[in-house]
TrEMBL record:
Belongs to the ketopantoate reductase family. One of its GO terms (biological process) is pantothenate biosynthetic process. One of its GO terms (cellular component) is cytoplasm. SUPFAM superfamilies: 6-phosphogluconate dehydrogenase C-terminal domain-like (SSF48179), NAD(P)-binding Rossmann-fold domains (SSF51735). Keywords: NADP, Oxidoreductase, Pantothenate biosynthesis. It catalyses: (R)-pantoate + NADP(+) = 2-dehydropantoate + NADPH + H(+). Residues 182-308 form the Ketopantoate reductase C-terminal domain. The lineage of its organism: Bacteria, Bacillati, Bacillota, Bacilli, Lactobacillales. InterPro entries: 6-PGluconate_DH-like_C_sf (IPR008927), 6PGD_dom2 (IPR013328), ApbA (IPR003710), Ketopantoate_reductase (IPR050838), KPA_reductase (IPR013752), KPR_N (IPR013332), NAD(P)-bd_dom_sf (IPR036291). One of its GO terms (molecular function) is 2-dehydropantoate 2-reductase activity. This is 2-dehydropantoate 2-reductase.
Amino acid sequence: MHFTVLGAGAMGLRYGVLLQEAGNQVDFVETWTPNLEKIHQQGGVYVSRDHQNRHLVPVTVVTPEDYHGDPDVWVVFTKQMQLADFLSRTAHAFNDHQYVLTCMNGMGHVEKLLNYFQPEKLLAGTALVATVLNGPGDVDFIGARGAGTMNLANYTEQPDDMTHKIVTELKKCQFNPNLTTNFRGTLLAKVVFNSVVNTLCTLFEITMGEFAAYPGADDLSRQLIDEAYDVCERDGVTMLNTREEELASVNYVSQVANPLHYPSMYQDMSHNRPTEVDYINGYLVRLGQKYHYDAKTHAFLTHLVHLAETTRQAAASSTSTVTQKQAEA
Ligand SMILES: NC(=O)C1=CN([C@@H]2O[C@H](COP(=O)(O)OP(=O)(O)OC[C@H]3O[C@@H](n4cnc5c(N)ncnc54)[C@H](OP(=O)(O)O)[C@@H]3O)[C@@H](O)[C@H]2O)C=CC1
Ligand SMILES: CC(C)(CO)C(=O)C(=O)O
């Protein structure tokens, strides 16, 4: 099959490189110039697994404007706030027979994708796998091959032949895909998970294992899970897990699967980039407001993340002003 990956960052590279290794034709489309330039200059991307075996994998990557292929499936892995720009710049290459698959965190992407793709060709899901971009053209797949899992569902909740073909290719890559027929329940399970783990680990600059080792972690998780479930249930979503199962999943992924991982939100915060919090905790707050439900803890955490972003960005820009003045003196 022919896959084109929109976003050659951490997760885009993980999916694209493994789909390519499984025998598919894979192209990448990227808007981040340093990444494009580095990959062109190196003749590919450096791939490691758990910081080991760093090796060069040849990949084809171009800007949206230079892309004129016609893939069977688009695989979309941008940050939520980058997606609208990616889509409008690549729109000339989209058509009605193409499928689109995304496992981005947060909510907001589905509506944007539906502006370009047929509802019956949209598959979305979640990826319980950690990946780190060390820098342009250099990616680290965290966790042993086949250790992670993913869930996916058709927007229409009606799998067709192509859905099964896509699942077969994902299986070959050992992504362990679980196909469900509950679209919103599948996506929101990960939003709830990320609203606890990504947000708290980011605020306290700790790994998932350090969070789970805190004796009060279950109390913190329960409060956020309860509020999130109160919101989702008001919206009529059939959640995949019970509240207790969701807590068990937070603990399993944090203690066993990825104890040493700093979630992707931390990776953004620590590099003074904006985070996806408005699409995770912020999404739950806005959804609650539709039903006059005040998701107070999620609102508070959303503010705390923005406060930390603002503080860090102000500190970074004052350091760069001082450095510039020293250079000029
Ligand atoms: N990483 C993970 O483990 C997981 C991520 N996801 C989700 O997948 C989607 C894609 O995320 P992900 O693949 O992590 O993100 P990316 O690796 O694609 O993010 C890279 C973006 O960050 C910015 N950036 C700038 N400088 C650097 C640098 N030195 N190193 C890395 N990035 C830099 C660039 O954007 P700019 O120039 O605009 O700053 C770049 O486009 C998101 O929705 C995410 O939540 C889901 C599961 C796991
Ligand atoms: C790897 C995982 C599951 C950890 O929360 C993730 O989604 C992230 O880092 O954003």
